[in-house]
Specification:
Length: 153
């Protein structure tokens, strides 16, 4: 049985209706983030919901770096410390009356650089207005939580 099949069997056979995922984004270089997903080791392929959360974090990072440069903000790094999401598994299993959507998503960002708190707040607003993946979640009615703050020096 291949890794993806094992992942889907585990995903579909979960005993609770709510399943949570956590994704970690490490930035060794600003343009090449390393993404890891809790519960997956080595070459095992993360499941699609976890990859979707990773896509959200990477998209927000790229959107932020693009707009920081446009705004003249000196951002050196962005760390996403808490990227989590919950799915109602009843929708995935086809239970009538339930949607197979994320229930909520949390994304906490720490922004490094020569910035004020107001700069970080402005950047977060621009990111939320312009990030395509973030807007897919919002348009689907997913509650997106999280904070953007200046990293401690």
């Amino acid at each position: 049985m291949n890794t993806l099949t094992r992942s889907l069997k585990r995903f579909a056979g979960h005993s609770k209706n709510l399943m949570s995922f956590k994704v970690t984004l490490e930035t060794n270089k600003l343009t090449e983030p390393k993404v890891t997903v809790d519960g997956f080791k080595g070459a095992e392929i993360p499941n699609p919901p976890a990859m979707t959360l990773a896509a959200l974090a990477v998209c927000e990072q790229h959107t932020a770096l693009y707009h920081a440069k446009k705004l003249g903000l000196k951002v050196t790094q962005i760390d996403f410390k808490n990227v989590t999401g919950s799915l109602d598994m009843a929708g995935f299993k086809g239970v009538e009356g339930y949607k197979p959507d994320f229930v909520d998503v949390t994304l906490d960002a720490e922004v490094h650089g020569d910035l004020s708190d107001a700069d970080v707040e402005k950047l977060a607003k621009v990111v939320h207005d312009c990030c395509p993946i973030y807007n897919l979640f919002k348009q689907a009615g997913v509650k997106v939580n999280g904070t953007w703050k200046k990293a401690a020096n």
